[in-house]
Amino acid sequence: MKKLISLFTFILAITFSAQAQEVKTVSLEQTKGEFTQKEIKLSEGSYVFNISNNSAGTDVGFVLVPEGKDAGDAKNHIKEAYVTKVVAEGKTESSNTVTLKKGTYKYFCPLNKTPQYTLTVE
Question: Could you tell me the pTM of the whole model?
């Protein structure tokens, strides 16, 4: 019986390990009116976005929206991608974990009035 329980526990552990995803970090920097990274290409998976404010002249944030959706409408934003705290001058803040599927997304900062840049998930 002990061997059966041990085997069952081992199988469960392997199953949960195989299902666990590695969370990768994407670091982005904002300066006055722009992101320094103009385009990003990623593979499908889970990500945390680290957003740095390098003399942007204002607090900054981060918005990610699927391409084709109205970026001006907050209901289309991927809320997990928002930084958990507005990014002050000289600081870096992070988003929650975001799971991205294949497709094209737009990212921008409404506080720093950046253009919309392209993030492609292959």
Answer: 0.83
Q: Quick one: pLDDT at residue 11?
A: 53
- Please write the tens of the pLDDT for every residue from 94-103: 999 999 999 9
In degrees and rounded to multiples of 5, residue 53 shows phi and psi of -105, 105
Rg (CA), the chain: 19
Residue among 46, 36, 39 at smallest CA distance from 118: 39
Q: What gap in Å lies between CA 95 and CA 28, rounded to an integer? A: 11
Q: Under 8 Å CB-to-CB from 27, ≥6 apart: which residues?
A: 49, 50, 52, 92
Once rounded to an integer, what is the mean pLDDT over residues 30-34?
A: 98
End-to-end CA distance of the chain: 47
For 30, other C-beta atoms within 10 Å of its C-beta total 25
